[in-house]
Write a structure and sequence with these properties.
single chain; Arc Repressor Mutant, subunit A; D-Maltodextrin-Binding Protein, domain 2
């Protein structure tokens, strides 16, 4: 087993395609295929499942890749410390629900670890995809919330995927509205206050169950519902239609429209917002710093 082979299998896992991985690694496809086969034979496992649509990581491959990433990250630390060799291309990926504090922390992370070349990924995506990204190691970390409604089900899914949830903070639900909204002058807003206004939420695709909803209290019946796929569209509609959405109340004015405001929602609920990661995985320096930046942004 060589470090090069570990880099090969990680690249294949990230792309899900041998041809694309070979192009990214600047090697011939047969050479890459042979190197992976040799590694699998040496380790006595099948790292990938092969199919007509590409390759997917096998269950035993998931565990192997977790260790491989740790080895490569520790190797980079040793080279920096003792060989004065800077990591040529820092890599880090996180998947999250649509939180501006997560985006701001990501920007601060990049500034801190700025380099001539890097490969960082931030995926604002659907809840099920966040869990899948971390389970399949497309992302090192995920950011989701748990509540009294979804905690039992989501925790069961995380356990099945060998993932753990670490709470960062608990928030009371807030309503995001435009600063010129008819309810903007109220200090607290009730569900009855909102019943005539359009409710904005994020589309969850085929996993549109309320357990995967990004918005708390999604089980309540609303007269006017609008689902969108990105944060910019949602905020434009919040302003343009006097709509509203429900979230944690943590909003970065630097990264969002200045005319979006948060008001406490008068309900007895909570949002435990936290990090999901793989059980037993050693956290990279980038992941650890990213979590520190999030905590700085929400205090």
């Amino acid at each position: 087993m060589t470090l090069q082979q570990l880099r090969y299998v990680i690249t294949v896992a990230e792309t899900g395609n041998i041809t694309q991985a070979a192009q990214k690694l600047f090697i011939a496809q047969p050479s890459l295929t042979n190197a992976i086969h040799e590694l699998e034979k040496e380790m006595g496992i099948s790292i990938f499942n092969r199919g007509s649509k590409g390759v997917t990581v096998s269950n035993e491959g998931d565990e192997f890749l977790s260790y491989a990433r740790q080895i490569l990250d520790q190797t980079s630390l040793l080279e920096e410390r003792y060989l004065n060799k800077k990591e040529m291309r820092p890599k880090f990926a996180v998947s999250c629900q649509h939180y501006s504090f997560a985006v701001k922390a990501f920007a601060e992370l990049i500034k801190k670890f700025d380099a001539d070349s890097y490969d960082f990924t931030l995926r604002e995506t659907q809840t099920h995809d966040i869990i899948e990204d971390v389970a399949r190691m497309r992302s090192e970390l995920g950011i989701i919330y748990l509540s009294s409604v979804n905690e039992k089900v989501i925790s069961k899914i995380l356990n099945a995927g060998e993932l753990v949830f670490e709470e960062i903070f608990t928030a009371k639900p807030h309503v995001f509205i435009g600063q010129n909204h008819p309810l903007a002058k109220k200090k607290r807003i009730s569900m009855k206050d909102l019943e005539d206004y359009p409710y904005l939420s994020f589309e969850q695709g085929e996993y549109n169950s309320f357990y995967f909803s990004e918005e708390i209290l999604s089980t309540l019946d609303r007269k006017k519902n609008i689902r969108v796929c990105d944060r910019a569209t949602l905020f434009n509609l919040v302003i343009g239609l006097d709509g509203y959405t429900v979230s944690s109340g943590k909003i970065s004015q630097e990264l969002n429209w200045q005319n979006i405001i948060a008001r406490p929602l008068n309900v007895k609920e909570y949002m435990k917002i936290g990090i999901i990661s793989r059980k037993g995985a050693t956290m990279s320096r980038y992941a650890a710093e990213y979590i520190r930046e999030i905590k700085k942004n929400i205090l």
